[in-house]
Amino acid sequence: MKLIYKLLHIAFLISLLPLSFQAQSADELFKAGNEFFQNKEYQKAIGQYDQVLAQGLRSKDLHYNLGNAYYEAGDFGKAILHYEKAKLLAPFDKDISFNLDLLNKQQKDEINPLPPFFLANGWNQLSNIASSLTWTILGLLLFWMGIAGFVVWQMSKIREQKKKGFFYGFALVLLSLLFFALASNRYKIINNGAFAILVQKQSRLLSAPEAESKELQAIHDGLKMEVLDEIGDWYKVRLLNGQQGWLPKSVIEII
Question: Lower Cβ count inside 10 Å, N or C end of the chain?
C-alpha cells in the first residue's frame, strides 16, 4: 500500500512539471523582454512579451509593458490596443490611464464621443471596483448568511428572533444577487470583446462589407470602436461618435 501511495505521489509531481516549466518560462520571457526594453531593443522586447501571451497568460503588467514597447517602436495602434487591454484588467491604474490619455490626444482623427448613459456608466464603474471572482465570493458569503437567517426564522421559537431572521435573511439574499450581477457584468466587460482598436496606419470606413462600397470616412490607427456584427472577413463597427460602417477584420484587433 505504501508503495502505491509513493507511486501516486511521484506521478502527481511529474504531472505538475509542465506547469512549473511553463510558469518559469513565462517569467524568464517577461524578464528578458524587460531587459530588451531597457536596452532600447523594442522589437526584441515585443517578441519576448508575445511569447508570454502565446502561452495563454495575460496580466496588467504584461499588456502595459507591451504598450510601452509598441509606442517606442512607433506602432501607435498596437500601443493603444495593449494599454486598453491593461486598463480592462486594472481600470483604476493611474500610469495606464495617463499613457492612454496621452496617446489618445495624439490621434489624427477628431472624434467627439457620445456621452455614455449615466446609469450604465455608473454600473460599469461599480463593477470595476473588484474582480468577478471577488464579487462572486462576496455574493456566496452573503447568500449563505441569508440562508442562515432563514434557518433562524424557521427554527427559532422567539417571535422577535424569527422576525429578525426573516428580515436579515431576505435582505442578505437580495444583496447577494446584486453581487452576483456585478460579478457577471465585470466578467462581460473583460471577455465579451465588444470593443476593438484600429491597428492599421490608415483605413476606410465603408458603407457595406465590400471593398468597392462607398467610403464613409478615412480613419487612422489607434481609433477605438465598438464591434456590432460580423460577416465573413468583415466587422460592422460603430465609432465613439455614433458613426457606423464596415471594416476588414485584418485592420482591427479586439481589446
Answer: N
Do 25 and 96 have their domain in common? yes
- Tell me which residue has cell 417571535: 159
From 122, 105, 114, 255, select the one nearest 195 (Cα to Cα).
Answer: 255
Residues 10 and 97 in one domain: yes
pLDDT in tens, the chain (255 residues): 444 444 334 444 444 444 444 455 888 999 999 999 999 999 999 999 999 999 988 899 999 999 999 999 999 999 999 999 999 999 999 999 999 999 999 988 888 887 777 788 899 889 989 989 999 999 999 999 999 999 999 998 898 999 999 999 999 999 999 999 999 999 988 887 789 999 999 999 999 999 999 999 999 999 999 999 999 999 999 999 999 999 999 999 999
- Identify the bridge partners of residue 205 per DSSP, sorted by sequence position: 217
Euclidean distance between CA atoms 99 and 77, whole angstroms: 13
Cα 37 to chain centroid distance, Å, stands at 24
CA distance 239 to 206: 12
Q: 15 with 91, same domain?
A: yes
- Helix-strand-coil percent breakdown of the chain, rounded to 5? 60, 15, 25
Question: Residue 77 phi/psi, 5° resolution?
Answer: -65, -45
Chain centre to alpha carbon of residue 122: 18
Residue numbers of the domain that contains 54? 2-104
